[in-house]
Design brief:
- By secondary structure, the chain is an alpha+beta fold.
- The strands form seven sheets. Strands 1-28-27-26 form a four-stranded antiparallel sheet, with no helix packed on it. Strands 2-3-4-5 form a four-stranded antiparallel sheet, with no helix packed on it. Strands 6-7-8-9 form a four-stranded antiparallel sheet, with no helix packed on it.
- The longest helix is centred in the first third of the chain and has 18 residues.
- It starts with 43 loop residues before the first helix and ends with a strand.
- This is Transcriptional regulator STERILE APETALA-like.
């Protein structure tokens, strides 16, 4: 989870892009009347479709930022072709496909595309604004182990940080102000770390968080209703909830402790539990129980993608399963060199990051497990943490955050700030956030003004 700000743009009129390959154009623009060119060749709808395909091909083969130059070259052919650059539908289609953005945050889709391009360009070049967030730790349970940050989550305007005492601190990123602190509802709990945060799902509308004993709480941000518990955990029958992830349609919990109950899936709109099953974490059952009294190494991770699938891993296996047909396994693989679980992550663009215990990191497509690129982290410590956004992989090693691009696996740079031992890291298209052992939350903002 993270936060960050700005830098100068590259001055191109077209923005930039990258993203998926192929695909059909979604249709001609209806924003203006189409007129054939004077010689009856190259009608505007055709040029618009060509522009879309040229940008997608460039982003697929070279990277998202390459789409801008490809479009610029095409628009310079003649005035008729340049007129296509005014099509809002073209920019909407490109923004959706290349940047995976479905909701307009700026005045027009053209402005949205340019903003996304410039922000990604800032990421590519390492232009960011750094700050740390001031907040007062709670130490609610008075554990002698200190306050350990367990999870971070980002939305466009908010950051949430969840800790070992069950507290979740919510911040407003533009102002860097702490808005609120939330605690799970009180009840008798099994184990002194039973209320430690095991996962956070955050949007600008609501905050959902889960604890190790399986309780799930929800609060509407800027709403009048108080925090409420939407699911009462049953740790005896389910085991420990070791990771929790989701989106606006699904919540997925990864459990360890009871055989054949590794995954729990909820419909997030109705808050109904619709599936329980899976044996992924059966070998880690004992470790799951130990987590309630001792916050040891990661047992597993689960992530939800934008195409209604989820990917999860333990230290030896990765598994992809369908959320539309819950229980259907789409792919699985044993990783013979083992998986560094702390470095595992996946994004909404159907890419995941897996690093083995020898320090070799691979970016793979979630749907097929096909390898996209690989790079070497040159470190095998268990304390390595990783995160990915739409185009970049970040690895925190020894208090230093390093950045790779995810098309060719090229190493780019490391952050200037040294943060010491890191407990949690998260990133999105604009921000990177990390929390160090001193309970300091660090924010890097790459946003384009």
């Amino acid at each position: 989870m993270s936060t960050s700000s700005s830098t100068e743009g590259d001055g191109s009129d077209g923005g930039g892009g990258g993203g998926g390959g192929g695909g059909e154009f979604e249709g001609p623009s209806s924003s203006r009347t189409r007129i054939r060119s004077s010689n009856g060749v190259w009608p505007e709808p055709f040029v618009e479709a060509l522009a879309f395909q040229v940008a997608i091909d460039a982003s697929s083969s070279i990277g998202r930022l390459a789409a801008a130059q490809a479009l610029l070259n095409l628009f310079q052919v003649c005035s008729t072709w340049r007129a296509v650059s005014h099509s809002e539908l073209l920019w909407q289609n490109l923004t959706r496909r290349i940047w995976n953005i479905r909701h307009l945050l700026h005045n027009t889709w053209h402005e949205e595309y340019i903003y996304r391009h410039r922000t990604a360009n800032n990421f590519q070049l390492g232009r960011y604004e750094y700050t740390s967030l001031p907040f007062v730790p709670s130490y609610r349970n008075n554990n002698n182990d200190g306050l350990l940050c367990r999870r971070l989550a980002l939305s466009n305007n908010h950051l949430a940080a969840g800790f070992s005492d069950g507290s979740v601190h919510l911040f407003h990123l533009p102002s860097r102000i702490q808005l609120a602190t939330f605690y799970p509802e009180h009840r008798d709990r099994f184990g002194r770390f039973a209320c430690a945060i095991s996962g956070i799902i955050l949007s600008d509308a609501q905050l959902v968080f889960a604890t190790l004993d399986g309780d799930i709480h929800l609060v509407i941000i800027n709403g009048v209703n108080p925090l409420r518990r939407v699911h009462l955990g049953d740790v005896v029958n389910d085991g420990a909830l070791v990771d929790f992830s989701g989106c606006n349609q699904w919540w997925v919990g990864l459990y360890a402790g009871v055989p054949d109950r590794a995954f729990h899936v909820w419909n997030s709109e109705t808050e109904e539990l619709i599936f329980v099953g899976g044996s992924l974490t059966d070998p880690e059952a004992v470790m799951g129980w130990h987590m309630l009294n001792e916050l040891t190494n990661f047992i597993g991770r689960v992530r939800v993608t934008s195409h209604e699938s989820a990917v999860a891993c333990t230290n030896v296996r990765v598994m992809v399963f369908d959320l539309r047909n819950v229980g259907i396994i789409l792919g699985e693989e044993d990783i013979h060199r083992g998986i560094n679980i702390g470095s595992f992550d996946a994004n909404r663009d159907e890419s995941m990051l897996i690093m083995d215990m020898r320090g070799v990191a691979r970016v793979r497509r979630v749907t097929t497990l096909e390898e996209v690129c690989r790079f070497t982290v040159r470190a095998t410590q268990r304390g390595i943490l990783g995160s990915i956004n739409g185009g970049y992989a970040l690895m925190c090693v020894g208090g230093v955050i390093r950045v790779w691009e995810m098309v060719h696996g090229e190493y780019l740079y490391s952050f200037r700030e040294r943060i010491g031992e890191c407990n949690a890291i998260v990133s999105n298209e604009r921000h990177v956030a990390a929390c160090s052992a001193s309970a300091t939350i660090h924010i890097w903002d790459f946003g384009a003004n």
